[in-house]
Amino acid sequence: xLKLFARPRITLLxxxxxxxxxxxxxxxxxxxFSFVSIKAAVRDVVSPVRSTANGIFRPVGNFFTGxxxxxxxxxxxxQVQNELDQLKLVQYSQLDxxxxxxxxxxxxxxxxxxxxxxxxxxVVGQTPTNIQLSFELNKGSSQGVKLGMVVVGGSGLAGRVxxxxxxxxxxxxxxxxxxxxxxxxxxxxxxxxATGQGVNLPLKLGLIDPGSNIRVGQVLVxxxxxxxxxxxxxxxxxxxxxSNPIGGLQEQVxxxxxxxxSNLQFVKILEWAPPA
Length: 276
Description:
Blueprint: H1 2-29, H2 35-108, E1 118-126, E2 134-137, E3 150-152, E4 157-164, E5 169-172, E6 180-185, E7 190-195, E8 203-206, E9 219-222, E10 235-243, E11 252-257, E12 266-270
Antiparallel strand pairs: 1-2, 1-12, 2-5, 3-4, 3-12, 4-5, 6-7, 6-9, 7-8, 8-11, 9-10, 10-11
């Protein structure tokens, strides 16, 4: 780099000396050397030097120009990404609002539990523990909720109230091992007993004699028998598997609950008490 800068300096010094000599000659020799010819000679010598200097400093200028342009481009990309993120948030909000609206519409059009007064409530949390599988509602005793009341979603039975405070209530899930409900299946309305088996496990169906007409895909509804804690005709689940082990005294039947607790947002609390 030092050599590159040293060479133009020497050249410039020679040019100065040459210019002085040319001026002297022009003065002494008259028209033999004109000022125009001197300028042309100087330009011929200086142009290569200027080109060399430009060639040296051009990459440096390009570097700084590129650096500033890169910074500007990066800022624009960050702005575009931020705008895309905001649009995604809006879309997610719209989707969630649509899901809530769909659940409310479905809940308002349920064909079961007709004629039973109800309290609409929103799910505000789930509390699945080793002791109890349950979820929380934003309505409590201040809104008329009482222990034992039945809770339904848009697709069927969601559970029953097992704890109440002034502004909230706790609902036992169907999958809890303490859940038990009498159900009916098939065209003849055969009776069976559905019990919970634990978190993320299907219900187990009891009292099914070998050779019964129960089939995969059949929908089970609450029986509503005397002393039953659930009113009759509420959908509970759909039969997911049926097997008859050799020598077994009962069919082994599993049932998938119709209510999906993972996206349950709105429910109805039925103001119903089992008959004495």
